[in-house]
Amino acid sequence: MFDYKLKNAIKVAITVSISLFLALWFQWDKPYWAAITAIVLCANGVYGQALRQGRNRVLGTLGGVAYALFLVSFFSQSMTLFILFLLLFLSVCVYFASDTEYGYAFNIAAVVCAIVSAIGGFDGETTFHLLTMRIQETALGVVVYSVVFGLVWPVTTEQAFFEVVDNTFEAFETSISKVFKALENNNAYSIEWDTLNQRAAITQMNDLLAMPHSGSANLQHQAKYWQLVVSSFTLLQQQVDELKQKLQADSASDEQGINYHQDISPILETLAALKMAINAPKQEQAASKAKLLLLCESIKPEPIVERSTIRNMKFKRVFRMLAIISTCFAMWIYLPIPSHGMFPMLATIFACVLVNLPDNMAKHGLWGVMIWGPIFIAQYTLIMPHFTELWQLLSLYAVNIVIIWTLFSNARMGIQRILGGNLMMVLTMNALKPAPVFDVSLSLNMLAWVIVCIGVVQIYTQFFNQVFAEK
């Protein structure tokens, strides 16, 4: 009846609606925290992986609120010491945020520490209240997500794996056809190379294969075959990257009329072998396996990255984060920004989160804010004031979630799902109060602060890239 994309969007809408309803029923002050937790977990896309992320989110919340309570208890009378010890904690969190197992916990710890410290108003009692409330609402979001995604159209590891395989192959096939068309027309400059970057999907396939396969007969008994398929995707990515590098080098040297047949043939061969392997019946998998084994012999091993290089990359992220936060704090202190602690809080969150993402994410985030912001502010001022029942408000949130998750179901658009969902809750949070407040000035200020913060992140991202590139 419904396709996978729409089913997933409906499940997310149900999860967010139930999280909001329960938080309001419990009369908690900030029900949107529970909804945001649910949104972030749902954006992961795979139930087992999201549960692990939920565990890390709870651990990060505990660490963040504990350190925020420490800051407020000991340094609430000294802004200088407060900021210094906050930056020290944030530096540790950003440095370890790339850890494969617990990196997300460090990321959340930095975000939660910033939120609780800012909203607590340097008052220990208020901060402790926020501490308990944040833990409660985070736990609520995790529990509701677990129940809904475990009972409503549950997706097994096998289903998730083959969904990623099909989507990744389709993305490669579409992108490569566009590249070949551009080459035929001698228009290599028009190629959108970002559409060929499927490394995240390949990593997700490897993660799914590493998960328990109980109840997934195909993966359990044919794990080596499907691991070979994933390796073939890796080979295809390497071949595309080599073609990309060659085209860029030839474009820089202004060479014309170059024949790329030798570079195109291996890509077409790998693509055809993958198509046959993915669609092959069980009795024909032996022939497909032999073909893939022969192709995969040409896979180049990933270059070994020295520890010093990894360490330097982590320190670069820390320095960039410190530069962003220091600039935003200086703007907050010396410029008439009417934000209480909201502006430095947002600056801290975006600095800690975006420095650990690919550099182009700040640009995508800025476009997302400029698109989603006016839409949700318009709903907040023109539609929500006319609601008289809770179900009407929850229905509007559910419709927004379904639209966001349906339009941006592609893995590359994950940041738009998270950003759209978060902005929806933050810009309309006053509508969720026991006595709703519809003051557009706070939402407009919030939107302006977010744009300024992301703009500062983008400026320092380009600056650091230019400085390190010159070196």
3D structure, described in words:
It is globular and about 70 Å long. With 471 residues, it is mostly helical. It starts with a helix and ends with a helix. The relative contact order is 0.11. The chain is built from 18 helices and no strands. Helices cover 76% and strands 0% of the residues.
Short description:
By secondary structure, this protein is an all-alpha fold. It contains 18 helices and no strands. The mean pLDDT is 78.
**Assembly state (oligomeric):** single chain
How do the SSEs run, as a string of H and E? HHHHHHHHHHHHHHHHHH
The gross shape turns out to be globular
Structural classification = mainly alpha
Note the main sheet: none
Helix content: over 70%
Total of helices: 18
State the total count of DSSP E strands: 0
- Measured distance between first and last alpha carbons: 57 Å
Using the CA coordinates, give the radius of gyration.
Answer: 24 Å
User: What's the average pLDDT?
Assistant: 78
Could you name the key traits of this structure?
471 residues, single chain, 18 helices, globular, 0% strand, mainly alpha
SSE inventory with pairings:
Elements: H1 4-25, H2 32-44, H3 47-75, H4 79-96, H5 103-119, H6 124-151, H7 157-184, H8 199-210, H9 217-221, H10 223-252, H11 261-279, H12 285-296, H13 307-334, H14 342-354, H15 361-382, H16 390-407, H17 414-427, H18 440-470
